[in-house]
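Deliverable D4.2, example record:
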Amino acid sequence: MARAKKSVYFCQNCGHEETKWLGQCPACREWNTFVEEKVTTVTSKTVKERKAVQVVTLSSIETEEDDRMLTSIAELDRVLGGGIVKGSLVLVGGDPGIGKSTLLLQVCQRLSAAGRKLLYISGEESLKQIKLRANRMGDFSENLFLLCETSLDIIRGIIEQQKPDVVVIDSIQTMYHEEVGSAPGSVSQVRESTNIFMQLAKGLNIAIFIVGHVTKEGTVAGPRVLEHMVDTVLYFEGDRHASYRILRGVKNRFGSTNEIGVFEMRKEGLVEVKNPSEFMLSGKPEHASGSVVACAMEGTRPMLMEIQALVCKTNFGMPRRTAAGLDYNRVNLLMAVLEKRLGLPLSNYDAYVNIAGGIRLNEPAADLGIVLAIASSYKNRPIAEDVIVFGEVGLSGEVRAVTMPEQRIAEAKKLGFKTCVIPEVSVKSVGKVEGVTIVGVKSVGEAISAGL
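Output generated by the structure prediction step:
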């Protein structure tokens, strides 16, 4: 058996491999993403004997309820699809300082208190730094073990020896394999490290969390193949300087990818927000024009949020458009509908549209809220405090139906809203709701008349 070193070129965006440098990646079509790395290949004329494999039927596989571990953090369990699945590999990404390590250390605290054996492996912090952070969270059980190491060979041996229920790797970019010649954090090292942790998770039936750094574009650093290899990808969203954090499931083989968890950063760590709608609407101004409450669905959870708009006369030949938390092109489209169908001369006005609280919203159900907020600011007429709206707006000015209107109205009733402006086609499916006046509209003109 002989070892040979050679140079290969990896795409930093998607992980595509080539034998020579290329200006454009043929897989992801990105420019100037190839980097050279030294890899060691093992050549041998002998062929290893293949292990005997057994083919089974789907009905013969038995699953148990104990296959999931509850973390006692309801928001995290919701995003994971009902708890941590044994033998799964979970990737947690987010901006620096947003709370990735804090959340995972809290998971270790809850699971170790429940009698689970956990191993926290850090390649970035010392044991004293982890202890200082843990002191702010409270007491920890003796079932939590710490290790500061970056060598994969040592880590693999300790995991196989200790056999914990859950392992936390912080972070994957600091791990290195001695047989891979490139530096830690490179494409080869990240891919090889993730592959080893995947084999350990499946072979030993343990759950492994790995922390991934993000690039300036907000994606996990390293090749996209990293996200394809893991079972679940969780992203932390929100401003690190703000108090709230949003944990979103981007990929989940064991549950929905539309669920989110809302947390608030405090001195003692991340505290789950059990009523995000009330949290997002806190501080809403009273009797102010350009402010309307809309309802969006995040998975199975309805969330009420305030849409704000400011329309003012432009001082230049080209009006300015700004959208924070919303799709910029979608806002321009809805303003064009208002100008064409209702005759509002918005081409001479600047428009600034914002989602209060800093959350991002891409659901079409927010269209009606954006339209009413812009019209309210333009006419300088406030919308009643107890009115909530949702509905998709088409290019003809029609208001189209959205999914799950019953859950949206139930959430609005819970927070004290008395009037719901919804699409006409959804009125029949909703029926009568005690204490709530339901107003069905067919066009944006009817919606503005009902809301203003």
